Amino acid sequence: MPDFDLAVIGAGAAGLSVTAVAAQLGLRVALIERERMGGDCLNTGCVPSKALLAAAHAVQEAQAAGRFGLRIAEPVVDWDAVQAHVQGVIAGIAPMDSEARFTAIGATVLRGHARFTGPDVLAVDGRRLRARRIVVAAGSRAAVPAIPGLADVPHMTNADIFGLPERPAHLLILGGGPVGLEMAQAHAGLGCRVTVVEAERIAGRDDAELVDGLRTALQQQGIAILEGAQVIRVEAGPALVLAGGRRVAGSHLLVAVGRRPNIEALGLDAGGVRAGPGGIATDAGLRSLTNRRVFAVGDIADPAGIGPRAFTHVGSYHASIVIRRAVFRLPARVDYAALPRVIYTAPELAQVGLTEAEARAAGHAIRILRWPLSENDRAQAERRPEGLAKLVVTPKGRVLGAGLLGHHAGEMIGTWTLAIARKVPLSALAGMIVPYPTLAEAPKRAAGSFFAASLFAARTKRLVRLLARLP
Ligand SMILES: Cc1cc2nc3c(=O)[nH]c(=O)nc-3n(C[C@H](O)[C@H](O)[C@H](O)COP(=O)(O)OP(=O)(O)OC[C@H]3O[C@@H](n4cnc5c(N)ncnc54)[C@H](O)[C@@H]3O)c2cc1C
Ligand SMILES: NC(=O)c1ccc[n+]([C@@H]2O[C@H](COP(=O)([O-])OP(=O)(O)OC[C@H]3O[C@@H](n4cnc5c(N)ncnc54)[C@H](O)[C@@H]3O)[C@@H](O)[C@H]2O)c1
Asked: Which cofactors (predicted)?
């Protein structure tokens, strides 16, 4: 008899989610973690980045208070205290992800490095264990590109940017994706000079029109952004040498150009588990294509024809699929049609479903509905009129995508996620009662604009005149 019903490799967001449900269902679960419980999200990802951003946003709020007629002295950043705040937030959340909590809900937590030694056998340091099902949730790490000189020049990734002993004088950031942009604003807000060097365009997967607004906001906050910049060499300093000869020098360098799955030290060959550069090759239900006992979840999963996604909420979504398939033996497959994502800058950029460019590339006939925050009373009252709600809909009024640029836009994307997931008709969204004055009126007004032409058409006016004559 196997030692465990389920063995989970990795106690990050994805592995913890699988373990929490499986253990509470009464299965014998081994959860194996070689480093820190909570993985990237808790220790070197979402949590510290949002905590650092919160500090930066507080500074920026104080600096911008003049717009309300307030005079607030320039905030003094106590770098050590800010770092203590970040570590304090991690410490506050850590008990939720801890060995003690998972032991208490019935899992066996093993601390050590796991690798396959057979299709259903793992070695965890010296110990050997067999499991009916194995879930690989070993996550990813920052990719470091093969740019000449980079390996010889001290640089940071998300693994070491949090907890710097001194405030960087001039932080160079290679890559203008979510990590690069969030870290740019966090450090700029805390008084660092920041330069983002991006090979293509910042937030390249997001809607170009919304990104224009984000870029302007970041530049107004003093962040230098170089796009279409090819770094051909990295020199001591650190300095980035661009094609064309320009040299951008700073005091610190953060590399944020994407992720690599942690597939190397797992003994995947011994387990008969196939993986490629995107991660462990699975079917759409996250089962390994080559070993039916094995599933992959979180950043390391590479479902065929769909590809990997690196978000904490994807990890828990993956967990729900694996629980359905591996525990309840029900069919389930990943579907990202209604997968939201947010860049947590101020303003935030939130997106769910297709962007305009993606919808056009997929051949959809579409209409674009917009509502600028400059026409939103709450945004006016708070003197933050920058931002836009943008909906991508079919000519019949089905929502394919929603993009929101604005303060706390991430808090508004849930409605549109549900709308896409449940195919809520645009008429219902336009007719929804939204409290006044909230920013959430903006996307509702965008939805309403779909009906404006037919509502105020000559035919409707004729009908109204006719009805007006009735007694
Ligand atoms: C700076 C930054 C900010 C981010 N912000 C957000 C955000 O705001 N929202 C969001 O949704 N996502 C965010 N992400 C992405 C998010 O952090 C990841 O998608 C998520 O943490 C992935 O979880 P995971 O469980 O797949 O992997 P991980 O968190 O990487 O966990 C994998 C775990 O497996 C362990 N492990 C690996 N190999 C072995 C082995 N052989 N044996 C034992 N243990 C092993 C590792 O030590 C690790 O603890 C951010 C990422 C970064 C870098
Ligand atoms: N708020 C969030 O939800 C959040 C925050 C951070 C990270 N994440 C997740 O983590 C993943 C990784 O984030 P990321 O920002 O590291 O990667 P990314 O792949 O999202 O963006 C990397 C950027 O670096 C650029 N780039 C690549 N090579 C380059 C080079 N040699 N020189 C200059 N630029 C280069 C790319 O064009 C791209 O714009 C994200 O895709 C996301 O899934 C999510």
From this structure: FAD
In the numeric block, which tokens belong to residue 368? 């674009």
Distance 203 CA to ligand 2 centre (A): 8
CA distance 394 to 367: 6
**β-strand partners of 371:** 389
- Beta bridge partner(s), residue 406: 348
| Binding-site residue ranges for FAD | 50, 299
- The beta-strand segments (E) located in 125-223 are 127-136, 140-142, 170-174, 193-197
**Residue that is written with structure tokens 């984000």 in the block:** 214
* pLDDT given at position 163: 87
DSSP-assigned beta bridge partners for residue 141:
260
Name the DSSP letter for residue 412. T
Rounded to the nearest whole angstrom, what is the distance from the C-alpha of residue 439 to the centroid of ligand 2? 28
Does the CB atom of residue 198 touch ligand 2 within 6 A?
Answer: yes
Concatenated DSSP letters of 325-362: IIIT--------TT-EEEE-SSSEEEEEE--HHHHHHT
* Paired residues of 403 in beta bridges: 351, 390
Quick one: CA torsion of 318, 319, 324, 325, rounded to 10 degrees?
70
Output the CA 139–ligand 1 centroid distance in Å: 5
Interface ipTM: 0.98
| Nearest ligand 1 atom, CA 32 | 43
Task: Convert the pLDDT of each residue in 36-70 to its tens digit.
Answer: 999 999 999 999 999 999 999 999 999 999 999 99
Q: What is the pTM of this model?
A: 0.97
- The binding site consists of 50, 175-182, 198, 258, 299
User: 378-418 pLDDT, tens per residue?
Assistant: 999 999 999 999 999 999 999 999 999 999 999 999 999 99
Token reading at 362: 């997929």
Report CA-CA distances (Å) from 6 to 38, 193, 280, 426.
Answer: 19, 49, 18, 43
Domains (range + CATH), the chain? 4-37+98-141+260-327 (3.50.50.60), 150-257 (3.50.50.60), 340-455 (3.30.390.30)
Ligand 1 contact, 268 CB (< 6 A): no
The Cα–Cα gap between 418 and 424 comes to 8
Comparing CA positions, the residue from 34, 28, 17 lying closest to residue 115 is 34
Give Cα 367 distance to the centre of its chain.
27
